[in-house]
Amino acid sequence: MAPEAQELVDGTLHQNISGIGLDPTYVRAEGNSLWAAAHDGSETEIADFVCGYGSLLLGHNNPEIVAYATEVLNARTPIHSQFSRRPEANKVTEVLNRIARREFGTPDTYFGVFANTGAEAVEAAVKHAELDRGMRVLALVAQVTEHTEQARAAVASGAATVDAATLTRLGITSRGDGAGDLEALLAEVEAHNGRALSKAPVFFTLEGGFHGKLAASIQLTHNPSFRTPFTSLATNARFLPVNSAAAVRPAFEAARATVLDPVVTDGTVEIAEVAAPVFGAFFVEPIQGEGGIVPLAPEFAKEIAAVSAEFDCPVAVDEIQSGSGRTGAFFAASQLGLQGDYITLAKSIAGGVAKLSVLLVRESRYRPEFELLHSSTFAKDGFSTLIAQKTLEIMERDGGEVYRRATERGARLLDVLESVRADFPDVVKDVRGRGLLLGLELHDQSGSASPNVAGAQAGGVFGYLVSGFLLHRHAVRVLPTSSAPNTLRLQPSVDLTDAQIERLDAGLREACAALRTADEATLLGF
Ligand code: PMP
Q: One Pfam annotation, family name (predicted)?
């Protein structure tokens, strides 16, 4: 773009990041590299540790996928053929089922709902969960209505009387008239049930969690600056602390509600208390991505699964960033033993070439009615589903060579990060993650002798300052996670080379040394 042209897209954002050198234009991309253009027309190879924020596990422009995409287009394959059979989408779901059975050791079947972006898959999960909950509410209301009629008939015929203790328990004074007492009781039941069933559904999610930025999904995303301007648009979630197993049960207990059900037992009308379907879903990421690369502890995941099952709350496992092979298994949750009722996938599932997301719904929760209620012009299109099919074929072949490579490359990278932390414990606070989803957290620099570093910390952009340094001095592209800006995310592709890891190592060491001595000239002198 000519420098004098008015920026009509993200102009303000670019102005903000150009000060720290984070606004290059990339002109070519291949494997684990991007090429940045300089004003003189020259190109610099950049080692990409961001890799589309997770969409490029198989690298930029994976040659096999690009060749296949070209073939698909040249063959005049139908791309938009809505309301017809879509065998490619079915095949993708079949393969995902095969992988789920293998990794979770489950016989369960999952049905597929296709969408275009990660946030859309989350929205579909929220909608499906609410449809399912609504249908459970209707079934319960029908049961109570039937029991109410049975109670009326039994009292009218003299086959049953109203239990005095029940009247007292509900605060009703007996009039000594069986039919009148019953109607007073039923009025109380109706009022109670109306209150219990008219409340908004309860969605649980975790502090630091990220589930997208659309109207409903943003309310599941913890970061208040993203979420709070839009709280009036959709149900607000309840946020639980990460890895605090003790907090799970009390959260459910606090939100539970009951429905009163009049039942006739041995000639007496009694009131049974039945759990009201108030829970929408519990959303979790197996490894929080935007929240700072925070892996869930297995015992925490186990508690979420157990308590959610007890309270009939579906678990929605968001694998949009952690899944599709990045952590050394296709589903990161399989490494935790956390089998979701809903599973969302996006990003790398379409090989970094197409846009596609999938919501998997476990058969025991699946409502076929949803198929007529949820759709998008672009969902399940012939191109993206064929690309996803090819991506899955690449991931699954040779006994899962891609997963092994993610594990091996990740271990190599982790070694380097650990070694930098060991040498600079005053600068690097923590190193976390699994496979090719790693994070390096830097200590707070509010007390730095460098006014620019301390200022960047105060402004929440310290991680961006370090990213700018690494990009310009070492041709290494890293960026902080969006909700934990002191954590640098490292989520490269399986094409990551040893030379690129060494470049990152050298860059991080120079950055750490400069931070240790508050050496502004080095950090900002590019
Ligand atoms: N869930 C998770 C876990 C994510 O990491 C993201 C994107 N960072 C999303 C949902 C939203 O995906 P998209 O950007 O494709 O809407």
A: Aminotran_3
